[in-house]
Amino acid sequence: MTSGPNTPTSKPRILTGDTPTGRLHLGHWVGSVERRVALQDKYDCYFLLANMHAFTTRFDKPADIRQDTIEIVKDWLAAGIDPKKSTIVLQTEVPAIAELTWFFAMLLSFNDVMGNPTLIHELETKGLGDSHSFGFPMYTVGQCADILAFRPVYVPVGEDQAPHIEMCRKAARKFDQLYCNVPNRTEDKDYVQAGGVFPIPEALIGRVGRLPGVGDGKQKMSKSLNNAIFLSDTAKDVQKKINKITTGRQTPTEPGDPTNILFQFVDAFITNEARVAELKDRYARGDNLGDGHVKQELAEAINTLLEPMRARRAEYEKPGGDDVIIDIIKDGVKRANVVAEETLYLAKTAMKLDFGKRLLS
Fold this sequence. Notes:
Blueprint: E1 13-18, H1 26-39, E2 44-49, H2 51-58, H3 62-79, E3 87-90, H4 95-107, H5 110-114, H6 117-125, H7 135-148, E4 154-157, H8 162-180, E5 202-205, H9 235-242, H10 261-269, H11 273-285, H12 291-316, H13 321-350
Parallel strand pairs: 1-2, 2-3, 4-5
Helix pairs in contact: 2-3, 3-12, 4-7, 4-13, 7-8, 9-12, 10-12
């Protein structure tokens, strides 16, 4: 049996991931991925490919979901995720997740699920109304299982995912209180010490909670809204997309708003703080600083960030690259199932369902 997440001999555990709906973009980077890369040495990291959840809206496109799964792993590796340090988890190959989803569905109420603000927003923005599948809202329960199957203490996510983490925390508390007799006044940090199976995980919000999409910035960056800059975009594509940002400002001598969408990108991607302060000052005063100049400098900064990622990704674009990715996934799945099966057995034991352990080949 492996060590638990809070034992003295183990690093604190982290779980986060992405649904394979296409390649990753800059919103993913500042919201979560850059933090994942930075945390790999200090934490026991599990990064999940939620390919089962992709079927909630694209059940008729299994081939696309498969390829998108491979492409996201390429993005992760390009961004700096090291499969020797971190475990890559394929959701559909970890059966404990599906079983835990069922158990948590019994603990969470209908209102817990349907009142989730992120779910409500997705139903609205995707125009699903009452036409969504039964499985669509179930994915929010599945996210609880995705996370708790690995008993992490932290979950790095973008700001929009915070309601999912709160529902996960509720499920963990309810399970531990009901089946492990943890007193309901126990502080979240003490649940495992008090006998709970599940720690109460904390969300780690990225340094940019919500990156707007290129254009007018009214919507967050999203592939489906065609307003995203992808981690795999060429330098020319990056400049072209940055040029689409609109501020409403007309001339370089017109005082501008240094909090507008353009400068939200400047804050996120130009790393020289003194230079950012100078740009904001000149922009606010209308000191002959046009949007075009700022956009050019911004695109250069973004391309400096992305160029090493493009180079690393190119190694997996060579013939046989997809096979290498699949081998990495298979290796991660073996490690992931050891932890998830342990979690499931602990949960079943607490629920008086411990009729024997199973072995996964």
